[in-house]
Sequence to fold (736 residues):
Amino acid sequence: MTTTALSAPRERRRDPRRHYPMWFYLPAAAVYGVLFIVPTVASLYFAFTRWNLSGAEFIGFENFALFFREPYLFQGLVNTLIYGALTSGLKVVLGLLLGVFLTSQIIARGYLRSVVFFPVLVSTVGIGVTFAVLMDPSDGLINRALAVIGVDGPGWLTDPNLALVSVALVDVWKGVGLATLIYIAGIVAIPQEYFEAAKVDGASSCQNLRFVILPLLWPATSTVIVLSLIGGLRSFDLIWTMTQGGPGFTSDVVASVIFKQYQAGFWGLSSAGNVVLFLLVSAVMVPLYWLMGRKEVER
Amino acid sequence: MHSTHRPLLPRAAAGAAAAVLAAGLAACSTGGDDDGTLNILIDNSEATGSLMQALVDAYTEAHPDVEIELEIRPGGTEGDNIVKTRLQTGDMPDLFFYNSGSLLQALNPSQMLTDLSGETYLDSVTDTFKDGVTSGDAVHGVPVGQAIGGGVLYNLAAYEELGLEVPTTWDEFMANNQAILDAGTAAPVIQTYGTESAWTSQLFVLADNYNVLAAEPDWADAYTANEAHFADTPAALAGFEHLQEVAEAGYLNEDFASLTYNEGLAALVAGEGVHYPILTNALTEIEAVDPEGVDQLGFFGLPGDAPAEAGVTTWLPGALYLPQTNEDPGPAQDFLAFVASTEGCDAQTAGVSVIGPYFIDGCTVPSDVPPAVAQLQAYFDAGLTAPALEFLSPVKGPALEQITVEVGSGIRSAADAAALYDEDVKKQAQQLGLEGW
Fold:
């Protein structure tokens, strides 16, 4: 046993995963280098400079100090975490429920599946503009509909306490189709034997969900969490088209704050913001990914 | 002239999409002036569009061999972003229209723009205007449009109905507001924080500069030198406080959070609101939609706490600038000379209603102007004007509009807002490399 194990690598020095000679990778490496690695390194450098139309001056960590000192920049950081957690959580819960519902024996299942998935296909900016109109406090369809049944609808996007949540709900509406799709795929992939065995044991449909579907859906759940959390943490387009971070700074997230700094011509500061966003997403995602990957292996 | 070249842009109606497309296609030819067409980048406001169209029409009539294309960009911070990016990438057209004052200073004009101070046509431009487009010894712009007042546009019919007088102090203004509220038919003060209209929230602060200077004559210099700030100068803080007072007293229109600038102007003309603190170039905006509407409105400067004489804060109009990347500035210079001449302002007068005095010597304002313009003119005639802070100091923070929206919406107190804005301007001052920050 030991001899074969030792002689195997001597026989073939090359990594068995490597199917092609090294230079085959060069074109891809060049594209990746120019479009990803160089800009990443450059933005890291510019994050330490005061950069304007006349050039970039190295100022050390001042941009980062500024970024964290300003109350509304920090507010954006908090909002980002709220937004990410809220959208991700709702997508998991609603996606799972819709997934279970749309794999059960119901009429027009194919049609309902496509209806749920449809918002994923629509442009985010289009959705943002549409919902900004729908959510208008006085003329919007939503509040007019509420008025018909005698409810005085709130200013969805103009109430400082509600604006971020409203945008998050639209984000969920748009993104839940993808989560549902992943869950449907996960549920369909569960072997029927488990359900049959559960049936024999006399499990109710609730117990089916709790003890068969949920545990076996863990890979799907972790995929949904990772995708939606990354999406939520760096979300920008929907917030920008719906509220532009307003009213005031109440629905600003890190990405919209960075964009505003860039618009104002503070290019160094906005690069620093991007580095902070990158570190934030990494700090949340790397441990999460590792944790969930471990859980998966354990099963 | 060389018509074989592709006409990149449709007429002036070319939208942002076309601009982006053109920028992409013409990326290799900086300035894109190789086809003999004079390209001018302007913002998408009604006022700029109609003034520029009037100038272009008059110029091309006199010079039939010249073709001029107006390229439209968005306004506000998005527009600032486009201007900076196109300057930085050397992709700016032959000429562009942009603000004067502190926004111009943020473009690093001495390195980006051509110095026009040696041109003879600039002699007819008044010194007041030149001060707003000067960096160091270089003068960069030629004015398009007329002087603008920042203050309160008000509904004349409502004032007549309620028997109100034009207020000269803040207390009188608040008393008028209370009378309008008691009458119960209209909102005393219009605010518009809707889509792309947050900038209108700044007027309570920016248009108060006449009163600040009346109390603190050295304010602008001390502010630029980081010696005086909004939070620790009571006269400057008053602007924030006034906005808070108006909001807390319940004088604002109910839909202030979602109303847009244009809707606010329509509401003012219709009498749904009586006061609207805004710039007087709103009159051009109103005229384009509702030519009769302009005559319904009057104007007064934003009243202060106790100035000796009530006056008005004024804005310089925007200007046309010549980027240094223009390799063949001849045609552009000729057009600038036309804009700086009396023929230029006559063309503007013929095309668009005059809303204030010109900054070009020899230009006259017709006598039959709308009431609001006559009231603005009266302040100029009496010498009761002071420039807005952005023409006295390069320091202007980018977040003021969000901060004032927060004050007007009751999210943040005036004192807190002023302190936050002082922090915000610090970034801009450091970015500009000013002494003492």
About this structure: Chain A has one domain: 75-298. Residues 1-11 of chain A have pLDDT under 50 and may be disordered. Chain A touches chain B at residues 50, 52-54, 66, 69-72, 132, 136-138, 155, 157-160, 244-250, 260-266, 269 (CB under 8 Å). The domain at 75-298 of chain A is CATH 1.10.3720.10 (MetI-like fold).
